[in-house]
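[Solved] Which block belongs to which protein?

Original post:
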Amino acid sequence: MEKPRRIEEGVYRVQLVLPESLENERRELELFLLGAQKRIANFSELHGWKDLTRESFFDLTEIYDRKEAFDRALAKVAGASVQIEFPKTYSAALENRVLMAVSPVLYSENYPEGIEKNSYEKLLAHEIAHRLHIRILKGNEDAMGPIWFFEGFAIYAADQFSQDESPLESAEIQSIISASTRTSYRKYGILFRYLIKKVSVEELIEHAGKADFESWLQEII
């Protein structure tokens, strides 16, 4: 495996493995990878986390032209059963320093709700953002908070759905906060951006892993 090569602060050229059908898209995909890293590097610098991007977040990238192949490869890397069925919309992951994703065409077909300007680059940045979040927490994944929060953080860091200014009703906010299963990522983004108007990202991260996080939120909503 080739070692990541530093291009600039927080941005690395990483080995990219593609099926033959995607070889003619290699250059475009490489640019997506560089752009995704740049997004997270810029976000990190803005919030004082620049030092956390000095080491690459992944050593290898694999992009698949079939969802079934992506699912099997992801299960293998994550140490899960190869029989596991991931949701149709599950399109990328960063596990064990391997960034894996379906192709841009598959992503658009399987998750049309996610289509926006630079949506594929943002998809990859989203997965890198999860790893940034873990570095902020000094490796303590248990402190990342509930699903809506750590996904909301990644959505915010990757600048996904930032043009959606749809208001959330109070009941919707309470429903998202109390839900134990995944719901709308777009609404996660809206809620997260609403919350950072109340308190800083840093303060939210600090409280997210605590047992009283939900009750603390009720005081600021």
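(Second protein starts here: sequence line, then its structure tokens.)
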Amino acid sequence: MEISRVRATGLMLRNCSVPFLLASAAAIVKTATGHDAPVSVIAAILFAAAAFSVLRSGKRLQNWANVKTLQICYWIPEVDALLRDDSAPPK
């Protein structure tokens, strides 16, 4: 359950990066066409930083889920014997 939760959280964070990038692009367009240029510039910078931050956090959580999976597989007794029995051709 913990691995599934971490994977889902990492995927959610990665998927949040696209809206942040689109918001950053919209703020850049607003800077070129709007009246509130300083606010739009600050918003564009913050949205771009948020996009890269959630991408990095998503990758970190994906790595944690992979490491946790490997740790669990290492500590399960007789997991190698189970895998060898399943991969053997039927007699």
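Accepted answer:
You had them paired correctly. Confirming on the second one: Helices lie at 2-33, 37-75, 79-87.
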